[in-house]
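Sample pair:
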Amino acid sequence: MPARRTRRCFAVVAPGLEALAGSELHALGLASGPAERGGVPFEATDEQLFTANLRLRTASRVIVRVAEFKAKAFHELERLARGVPWEEFVAPGGAVCLAVTCRKSRLYHSGGVAERVTDAIGRRVPGATVGRAARGEERSDAQLLLVRFLHDTCTISADSSGELLHRRGYRQATAKAPLRETLAAAMLMALGWDGERPLVDPMCGAGTIAIEGALLARRIAPGLSRSFACERWPAAPAAEFPALRAAARAESLPRARVPILASDRDAGAIAAARANAERAGVLADIEFRRCALSAVEPPALPGLLLTNPPYGARVGERAALRNLYAQFGNVARRRFAGWTVAFLSADRALEAQVELPLGPVLRFRNGGIPVELEAVRALRIP
């Protein structure tokens, strides 16, 4: 049996989530290098690469380092790019989407770089069609290849994920200012929630926190219901992947072992959240209620109260938000003694209205807005 090749990989995450991604990789038995801003390098076989896409909850995508070389002139780029094994990642007649960036290099014209790389791909992959798209507009049916020039070093990577990994496949209905699935999972993991204590989200919107909580509690791999770009690679051991997916499915628990409550005062938000939970296969694990924040009732045992309230940058008026944050603090003090209380904050003034002894747990950007996950553990009431 031929030795299984090991690839240099990189789990891309939102800046601030690197440590969590590193912990996830370690739990999967994948040795990772020191975290870098925006991701974690690691080594993996093709089977392990598929598993990383299938199971990572915090990663946005997983890329594979294909080649790295110095090039200070276009003739050097042409010669070296023709030696890249493009045929391992692009099938004959396949579609390719190029993302090219050039910084602090003699080859600074991204269009010129793309032209030479396109020619190199065409020489090794018959019938390949190569296009370019703005960031975030990559075609889901095209193989994304990333070409980066920095200080005259060209690094070429192949995206193994396809659509961004936060697109689990369940969230088709959204509410105002939705939270990405990867960020919701990161918040739960950073707070140490493992599905053994109750979870309550009193401003649930599209239900992302509760749904990610149910997936985590039931040990459902987040990528179980979607496909990945690496499954289409000509050189991939595609016959091995169904067994890996089946093994992940077999590990899932039949039900969450603790109560998960999600409520919102908006009927449309509750309808959207229920529809998303049904698509995720966890509707039976979550109790959805339409009610005001002041009417939220916790389960008997203490757990985690976690929510993503409106920040004021997009949703709601300032005075109303001050009252909302103050009400959140009041409800926490009156009804959630002994609980971990946490919320996503983008405004110190609004955060102060909660009047709890909060501390930062995570810092990242949500929808381009700098935010902090603030929390108080085992809330004590004087």
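The mean pLDDT is 93.
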